[in-house]
């Protein structure tokens, strides 16, 4: 999805709903520095961050210049240049099972001033983002959430988890294989050229990861404000394979009191290969004069405990929802991923906001490819995205076999809410678990068992950044 995200017209419903409250909803022109700075100030205040200062402000300006940013303005306050609500969004690929990517609409910076809360401002903004995502041709909208109770009402649901992984240094005796390549300490700035390609490959092999935006890696490498204490404390490791090709990197810092062993803390470990992942973990956990290693936003399914003699050296905590997904075009979303088993499955999707509502037939072949047939469902909205809206997505001749195989029997079917579709979409939870929770209803025998196998992902979904 490469296009100018600001070219989509402002959502008329949100504009009208907010105007009725005496508020002005508008797109912020990133060339208007006064307006942009007012918006950035509101965003920082909304998340309880300190007032931005250079060079952080410069960084924010550059990042926001790439995005579609909206502010809600109240002319009746002493500082009307600062919006009372903010949201930003941009098109980004979301990795799905099978090493592929689906067109996503990333939503961020959702804030409403405490002076204007609970008047329906966030609702107007969030509904507008869904309409814009649809107009942009995205299959899903996605976000990370400060609180887990805000976004379900708009059809978002947890789709990929993250956890904090801690390793007790004294117990961390490595028994994993030696990597064929080598890990080197490097200056963080030296990774600027190699990190984007490594990250792209790391993202594409992990369902739940999203494309990194321009500037994201500069922040990870401490290059936004290199003279700050935080940046100066950052150390960088790079793994080169046996051919000398960089395949992974990590940045970490050691937090410590004088004369006490410290903690190695990191939130960036990008590995394009399993060798790189193992080798970087090994250097991180085998440091001396540290109490332990703490990895933030790690997978809930790290191979680490299988690489150490004492699996109890590893503690996984704070595991929970991290990536939230909202399906806005079910046919495109279902057609984009690969499936774990062949079969034909009918999904009756309930979506109170209409975007994904209807009956979809998912026909997967043994190689994991699928076609999706979706005669217009009852609740589907009239507003189609601008692009061609073929209701048969992911078409591939190889699915003919699966169709022939299942032609004899009536297709297995189940009924589910669009939120539950989002949760099973990347393989983060089995459909049968949601059925046990009373959320998915099997309409014909065997549907759940088939859905469990079809929606399984070879790799546990994981998102390793906030956005
Ligand atoms: C979360 C936030 C954006 C909500 O803004 P708001 O304008 O007060 O929300 P609205 O009045 O539009 O409320 C919309 C709905 O969400 C609910 N809601 C809003 N904030 C909520 C919260 N923090 N927890 C649970 N429900 C919440 C409202 O009750 C309302 O429910 P309903 O429409 O189903 O009756 C605002 O409180 C905020 O800026 N918080 C701090 C920053 C933040 O956490 N942003 C989220 C980033 S992921």
- Report the major sheet: 12 strands, mixed
Task: Describe the strand arrangement of the main beta sheet, using strand numbers.
Answer: 1-2-3-4-5-12-6-11-10-9-8-7
The CATH topology of the largest domain is given as: Aminopeptidase
The radius of gyration over CA amounts to: 23 Å
Name given to the CATH architecture of the largest domain? 3-Layer(aba) Sandwich
CATH class of the largest domain: Alpha Beta
What number of domains? 3
Strand content: 25-35%
Which geometry do the CA atoms define? globular
Task: Write up what this structure looks like.
With 467 residues, the chain is α+β, with helices and mostly antiparallel strands. It folds into three domains: 5-138, Gcn5-related N-acetyltransferase (GNAT) (Aminopeptidase, 3-Layer(aba) Sandwich), CATH 3.40.630; 163-324, Aminopeptidase, CATH 3.40.630.30; 326-455, SCP2 sterol-binding domain (Nonspecific Lipid-transfer Protein, Chain A), CATH 3.30.1050.10. It has 13 helices and 18 strands. The chain has helices at residues 12-19, 33-46, 56-65, 121-136, 195-204, 216-220, 229-232, 274-285, 330-336, 400-407, 418-425, 431-436, 447-455, and strands at 24-27, 68-73, 85-96, 100-112, 140-144, 157-168, 182-186, 235-240, 246-255, 262-271, 290-298, 314-327, 343-350, 358-364, 370-373, 392-393, 412-417, 441-442. The strands form two sheets. Strands 1-2-3-4-5-12-6-11-10-9-8-7 form a twelve-stranded mixed sheet, sandwiched between helices. Strands 16-15-14-13-17-18 form a six-stranded mixed sheet. Helix 4 (121-136) links the parallel strand 4 (100-112) and strand 5. The two termini are 19 Å apart. Coenzyme A (COA) is lined by residues 46-47, 110-112, 117-123, 145-147, 149-150, 153. Coenzyme A (COA) binds at residues 46-47, 110-112, 117-123, 145-147, 149-150, 153.
């Amino acid at each position: 999805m490469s296009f100018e995200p600001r070219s989509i017209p402002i959502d008329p419903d949100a504009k009208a709903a907010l105007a009725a409250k005496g508020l002005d909803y508008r797109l912020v022109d990133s060339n208007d520095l006064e307006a942009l700075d007012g918006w950035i100030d509101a965003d920082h205040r909304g998340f309880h961050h300190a007032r931005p200062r250079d060079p952080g402000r410069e960084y924010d300006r550059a990042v926001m210049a790439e995005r579609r940013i909206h502010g809600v303005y109240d002319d009746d306050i002493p500082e009307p240049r600062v919006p009372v609500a903010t949201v930003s969004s941009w098109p980004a690929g979301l990795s799905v099972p099978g090493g592929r990517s689906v067109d996503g609409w990333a939503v961020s910076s959702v804030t409403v001033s405490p002076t204007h809360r609970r008047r329906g401002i966030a609702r107007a903004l969030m509904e507008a983002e869904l309409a814009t995502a649809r107009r942009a041709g995205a299959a899903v909208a996605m976000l990370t959430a400060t609180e887990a109770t805000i976004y379900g009402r708009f059809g978002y649901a947890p789709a990929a988890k993250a956890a904090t992984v801690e390793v007790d240094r004294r117990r961390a005796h490595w028994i994993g294989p030696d990597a064929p390549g080598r890990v080197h300490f490097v200056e963080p700035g030296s990774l600027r050229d190699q990190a984007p390609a490594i990250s792209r490959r790391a993202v594409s092999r992990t369902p739940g990861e999203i494309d990194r935006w321009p500037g994201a890696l500069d922040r990870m490498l401490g290059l936004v404000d290199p003279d700050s204490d935080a940046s100066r404390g950052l150390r960088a490791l790079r793994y080169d394979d046996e051919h000398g090709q960089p395949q992974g990197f990590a940045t970490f810092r050691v937090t410590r009191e004088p004369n006490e062993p410290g903690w190695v803390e990191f939130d960036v470990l990008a590995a394009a290969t399993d060798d790189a992942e193992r080798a970087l973990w090994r250097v991180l956990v085998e440091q001396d004069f540290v109490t332990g290693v703490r990895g933030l936003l790690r997978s809930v399914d790290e191979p680490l405990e299988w690489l150490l003699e004492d699996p109890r050296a590893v503690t996984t905590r704070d595991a929970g929802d991290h990536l939230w997904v909202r399906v806005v075009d079910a046919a495109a979303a279902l057609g984009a991923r690969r499936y774990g088993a062949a079969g034909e499955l009918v999904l009756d999707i309930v979506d109170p906001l209409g975007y994904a509502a209807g009956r979809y037939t998912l026909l997967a072949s043994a190689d994991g490819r699928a076609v999706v047939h979706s005669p217009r469902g009852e609740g589907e909205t009239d507003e189609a995205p601008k692009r061609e809206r073929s209701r048969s997505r992911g078409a591939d001749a190889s699915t003919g076999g699966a169709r022939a195989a299942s032609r004899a029997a009536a297709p297995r079917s189940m009924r589910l809410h669009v939120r539950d579709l989002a949760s099973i979409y990347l393989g983060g939870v089995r459909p049968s678990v949601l059925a046990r929770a009373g959320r998915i209803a099997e309409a014909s025998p065997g549907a759940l068992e088939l859905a469990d196998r079809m929606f399984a992902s070879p790799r546990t979904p994981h998102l390793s950044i906030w956005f």
